[in-house]
Design goal:
With 185 residues, the protein is of the alpha+beta class. It is 45% helix and 19% strand. The strands form 2 sheets. Strands 1, 2, 3, 6 and 7 form a 5-stranded mixed beta sheet that branches. A two-stranded antiparallel sheet has the order 4-5. Strand 1 and strand 2 form a beta hairpin. The longest helix has 18 residues. The chain is elongated. The C terminus is likely disordered.
């Protein structure tokens, strides 16, 4: 993390993103008083904690992507794009495929049936952000005429989501250590 001094003597905090040995900076909405920066290091624990939370959310988003061949600019662009839409069905299909690969075809068939019911209600293209609890309750309500489906399908969809694993990426560093960048004002 670094900071740039403003006219009111406060410093704007930046998060430094290092990827494939290239560095880019991302603005934050946090300001620090100059006295909270010592030898280019931010000492304000509140600011450091807030940045750590942001960085953790960035890691979570990036770990779902293959960023190995991205530039540092691409990583920053992806991180700062808050409108990322994450498709739901590919995650479920991946989980079901793993079951089939582990010779669990019969169990995978139940998951496929549950997913098809979910797809019939929600539509073909749905993102995680579009799945709301009220809609899920409505979907479960449509299953009320079949006791097995009403009990099993929501459980299977939930299990599918719980067991989805994301790839780990080790070629990215987001740093909260700071250096002071002077703008010459």
């Amino acid at each position: 993390m670094c900071a740039v001094e403003r006219e009111d003597r406060r410093l704007l905090a930046y998060i430094r993103c290092t990827h494939n040995r290239k560095v880019e900076y991302m603005k934050t909405d946090m300001y620090i008083y100059k006295k909270k920066v010592v030898n280019g290091e931010i000492t304000d624990q509140n600011i450091l904690a807030q940045c750590a939370v942001k960085i953790d959310s960035y890691y979570q988003r990036l770990n779902r992507e293959n960023i190995e061949n991205w530039s540092a600019k691409d990583v920053v662009k992806f991180i700062t794009n808050e409108n990322e839409q994450i498709p739901f069905y590919p995650f479920c299909n991946q989980f079901i495929s793993k079951m089939i690969n582990n010779n669990r075809e019969r169990t995978a068939k139940n998951y496929n049936i549950a997913l098809n019911s979910f797809r019939a209600f929600f539509g073909e293209n749905i993102n995680f952000q579009d799945i709301k609890s009220m809609k899920v309750k409505q979907w479960i309500e449509t299953l009320k005429n079949t006791a097995r489906a009403k009990e099993m399908y929501p459980t299977l969809i939930n299990t599918c989501l719980i067991n989805i694993k994301v790839k780990e990426t080790s070629c990215l560093t987001l740093d909260i250590k700071t250096t002071l960048i002077s703008t010459g004002r």
